[in-house]
Amino acid sequence: MRILLFLCSLLFIHPVFGQTVTGFSEEGAAAQLELEKKFDNLLNPENLDVWMQKMAARPHYVGTDYGRQNAEWMAEQFRSWGYDARIETYQVLFPYPKLRLLEMTGPQKYKAKLSAVAVEGDGFTRQGKELLPSYNAFSADGDVEAELVFVNYGVPADYEKLEELGIDVKGKIVIAKYYGSWRGIKPKLAAEKGAIGCIIYSDPKDDGYYQGDVYPKGAFKNSTGVQRGSVMDMPTYPGDVLTPGYAATADAERLDRKDAPTITAIPVLPISYEDAKPLLEALQGPVAPENWRGALPVTYHIGPGPARVHLKLEFDWQLKPAHNVIAVMPGSELPDEWVIRGNHHDAWVHGASDPVSGMVALMEEARVVGELAKAGNRPKRTMIYCAWDAEEPGLIGSTEWVEDHMSELQEKTVIYVNTDGNSRGFLSAGGSHTLETMVNQVAESVTDPQTNVSVADRRKAALKVMGEDAEFKLSALGSGSDYTPFLQHAGITSLNIGFGGEGSGGEYHTIYDTYTHYKRFKDPDFSYGIALAKTTGRIVLRMANADVLPLTFKPWYRTVSTYLDEIMKLTDDMREKREKYNEMVESRAFELAADPTKPFVKPEIKPVVPYIDFSPVQNAMAALTVTIDSLAAVDMDAIPASKRTAVNKELQKLEQSLTNNKGLPRRPWYQHMIYAPGFYTGYGVKTLPGIREAVEQEEWKEAAEQIRVVAETLAQFNGSLQQILETARN
Amino acid sequence: MRILLFLCSLLFIHPVFGQTVTGFSEEGAAAQLELEKKFDNLLNPENLDVWMQKMAARPHYVGTDYGRQNAEWMAEQFRSWGYDARIETYQVLFPYPKLRLLEMTGPQKYKAKLSAVAVEGDGFTRQGKELLPSYNAFSADGDVEAELVFVNYGVPADYEKLEELGIDVKGKIVIAKYYGSWRGIKPKLAAEKGAIGCIIYSDPKDDGYYQGDVYPKGAFKNSTGVQRGSVMDMPTYPGDVLTPGYAATADAERLDRKDAPTITAIPVLPISYEDAKPLLEALQGPVAPENWRGALPVTYHIGPGPARVHLKLEFDWQLKPAHNVIAVMPGSELPDEWVIRGNHHDAWVHGASDPVSGMVALMEEARVVGELAKAGNRPKRTMIYCAWDAEEPGLIGSTEWVEDHMSELQEKTVIYVNTDGNSRGFLSAGGSHTLETMVNQVAESVTDPQTNVSVADRRKAALKVMGEDAEFKLSALGSGSDYTPFLQHAGITSLNIGFGGEGSGGEYHTIYDTYTHYKRFKDPDFSYGIALAKTTGRIVLRMANADVLPLTFKPWYRTVSTYLDEIMKLTDDMREKREKYNEMVESRAFELAADPTKPFVKPEIKPVVPYIDFSPVQNAMAALTVTIDSLAAVDMDAIPASKRTAVNKELQKLEQSLTNNKGLPRRPWYQHMIYAPGFYTGYGVKTLPGIREAVEQEEWKEAAEQIRVVAETLAQFNGSLQQILETARN
């Protein structure tokens, strides 16, 4: 495979000054590289610093006046840089916490403080009532009291362990650690298992003193910090809970709140480790398995009880305006081909890191694109810079906008490039694998500010040191930021780009995510903000100016093949594991190995894992190889100008042929057949999700159906590629 | 291999009532099984309970009056059971802590308490001054003050990490966690690296609330508990530090204390986690790597400093009498063939678990053997029951005794069977692999008290559940109990037997190892004490009565082959790892992956790992296969009585042909060429130690020499086996 790629690069990619720029003729590539040099020279880190100070000066969650002011100010900035900027507003349901009560009623009394302390040296943390109280958005209202059960991270494997121990959470309140999954999975699973309430806390092992010195001495979470966050069932659908699949315009028809399927079934509240400690200390019952234990100075027991807790939550459920800023610069040659670039602007509190660090890099990128345009280098395709509102409660601003403009976006968008919080460290990039070649070329051409090698080489060095395959690959996207509606709902070719890994801390979604914290621990000189602007700037400019859209198919094929291999191996591994398990049940190994003085539920024989027929997908992949090999033999950058429009149109729509308009089982909103957030992981991606999740859940009939659906989708994708091949050749 | 063994059992082992008893004719086996039934029926768990109460009533470390009383009382008991019991006393150097001072002198002051608290419900912990203060025996005297450095477990890999971080312990005092190696390795390595003092503490992650509820609520170590223990350099030689290789009789010539090589070079003191916390909290410098961090509620930093500590230790270095109890019952037919059985009787404090739980099982076994003898079933070979003194400070009682009687022991002993602390759970057995078949047969015939399957089957179920090969194998012995002088110095066929795994706790070498603790958390009804007596009782009775000593050679061969394979693979793995490492140094991967704001020492190219010639050992093993195959074709149990004496004499001496009288490099006391405690692991075994440690230390010349030595040793062993074959055949 590597040899083929190497040949491919020898034959068809035009090296200019040692660089290759797919999508351009040789002279076009030279001009583009010249443009990028100018672009780099105009970037100014001081802007990022000044803008962050402004935008993160006060809390600006959805519906706040400061959030609206930020949106208006950004629109003004975009206009001053030559964009046609407007604010598109949706009316979205947003719960504000009216009443939050958590108390232990026995065997000791304890009333949770539920508030993080202001710290020395960071005035932002002293803004009192303006700071949004800590809570989980889209928790149900509730008033419950019950015995407590510690459920580790509250993910499926944890409930399997509880079952082994004979512990049932029915009628109980669970306490789960943050991490291990996206937070919304915890109350979702707890409710499925019959729990009546859910507490989520940040254990110092994952997110506190175990990781490093705590704020304000160091960057990590102190004992009072609480991570806010949405628990909306985003794996079912993101966006406004009352308007699934369509825009939350002022006059839209809305679901009754009680019918909204993405609000949790049970009340859920996040707490600090200071508040969690007395609760965990009061639990008895079995000692938690070793990999469940955190870093609090207690013996972690599971319960249930004797700790009893009372959890009472009331929310003010109001429609709030979500203000998306949309800044357009029509393309000089191809105004109906859109390059969209976005980052959200709303934050849970000040959000210096999340999202402002990414937002200001986007703005600086847009400013320089504007400046270059003024100087005569207006992009050929239309540039649309977006600042999304209401991302934090559930990707709401971007989702409503995509739902609002769905068909036009599908018709015109050539790429959506997303960013979010940014920090010091290593480039990470995820998205449509047809873009892997282009992203690689970009990553090879941006210099890492700390080491003076390319950001690609720095990342590869890190992979090498970790003992991994030292290639720069795109990751698959799950969810957790605004690419989701573009990629997984609308089937738009998408990327998500960021730097990080050397700016770790515990500020995420807390009152400590401030400018002060960012300057001390994240990217003090904004050099990685600039590196981000250079990376995404190159990506959008290449996409905007390319003669032929720089999509390639070998990396896509290689990647999707590995997904299929993984699932086939998963099935075989499950089968082998199940056989061993059943043999051990039959030979009484579990019983004999168990300590008879400890709780033990005699395990039962489980159903065998059948052999399943993957051949429809294997055959579809085999057919794709042929087409992709033929495409690799065509020099796309050299096709005559007369054919480019047609080829580009087909390339522009290509990602959509990987979607199916029936969507995934039980979640029709998710239409992409290659990438989706996991139904039981949340942010974590599941690739070939229809098949993979059916296998994981042992739904063999559904697995067979989804194999057929994926095979059809791949055939459809093959059809599109054949069309491109035909157009390019004729 | 399995098929061969199976055939072998079909052909030559005599099943009686479904059991196989190697070493006996068919009728001899039947009689032996009948005897074992009687033996089982006479065992009484109440004796263990009553005797433990007596022996563990007061502290009884070496030199105490209570220790002497225990010895005399035991001798009396043995006499009452029909043994000829005597006390053999040696005069051994034993340091008693006169002055123990540990204080932090800056940046804050803290004076370590150095004492565990008495607890509710356990009167033994309230014996005040009688409780031996916590210390590490054979620490040097010293008075040092310096900055502190946290060194994780203080093992070689930890110093490699420190080197990567550019941290030097020269002139510093190190603080290391217990665990990760035998404790004596920590000051030994620290001193080699230039540290001037060493503190060892029990982190709650390994040994405290992280593991379970702490004493007295649960079994685990509370914040004040301190593990005592020897830090004598036992991997160089155990036993009295002043009389290396010869007995510490009253009039023996002794080294000057300053010349004793097994006393540490620097002062070392163990402390509780209560005392460690302020010291660790005061450290700055890099945050410790993730796998170094414990469960204290602090951010683990490495230092050096700013914490400075002052450590002052003075010991009263006196010769103390160590009283070994030796109880002999001459064999009815073969009085010059000895079966020796031992357990130590000295404890750091009360030692209910360590060693009394094993001691009382040995006594009950001896009592019943005596009773059976009185009833006409006197063992054919001589039985010698031993209760060793001064095991805790460094296997002193047993070592001096072996050194005292070396040539007679080598001439007469057919087996040494050791036990030590015992608890509830799973059988573990280690020792000479020529005994694996016999131990398996015994393990198949003893019933587990909790599950009613054989102790072998229960152990196999546990292995299966852990995903390991479910065969009951003997482990290789390193050090840590009294088998060491027998096996590794004198080359006597040896075993170490015990139950455990379900009685975990934090009492080891603390004031909490009491009868009260044992009854609550270890083996409350002494059923595993009885299971131990049944297991070791069968072993000694079979060895005592066998027609032909039940040694087999296929399991030995299979096991030693795996050791050789491991070392060859280790060498290849080291080579491959080194090549990768050097490539990463050359490609600057480490530099590029490192966070430039954190300490980083540019790594250097390291020497390549050469290919080495293992063929001498491979050829010696190949020659052994031939002999062992031939031996497997002989029915040893059926050889005529006239030949038995000669064959048994050769079998009795066989293990000695695995020794080399020059010993291991730099530690001539260790003469066994297959098993030794690791020079840098302490208790942890190194198999084929001469070769393995040379490879690990990259001493390639020494590796080649040791390959030659081991090949010669294996040839010597082959010669002995050929002699046996010849004698058996003629």
What would your notes on this structure say?
- In chain A, strands 3, 4, 6, 7, 8, 10, 11, 12, 13, 14, 15 and 16 form a 12-stranded mixed beta sheet that branches. Chain A has a two-stranded antiparallel ribbon with strand order 1-2. In chain A, strands 5-9 form a two-stranded parallel sheet.
- The longest helix of chain A has 33 residues, at 554-586.
- Among the domains of chain A are: 100-318, Glucose Oxidase, domain 1 (3-Layer(bba) Sandwich), CATH 3.50.30.30; 554-729, Transferrin receptor-like, dimerisation domain (Transcription Elongation Factor S-II, Chain A).
- Mean pLDDT of chain A is 95; it is low at 1-15.
- The radius of gyration of chain A is 26 Å and the shape is globular.
- With 730 residues, chain A is an alpha/beta fold.
- Chain A has 22 helices and 18 strands.
- Chains A, B: Belongs to the peptidase M28 family. M28B subfamily.
Short description:
The first copy, chain A, is 39% helix and 17% strand. Chain A has 22 helices and 18 strands. Mean pLDDT of chain A is 95; it is low at 1-15.
Index terms:
homodimer, 17% strand, Glucose Oxidase, domain 1, twelve-stranded mixed beta sheet, Transcription Elongation Factor S-II, Chain A, 730 residues, 18 strands, 39% helix
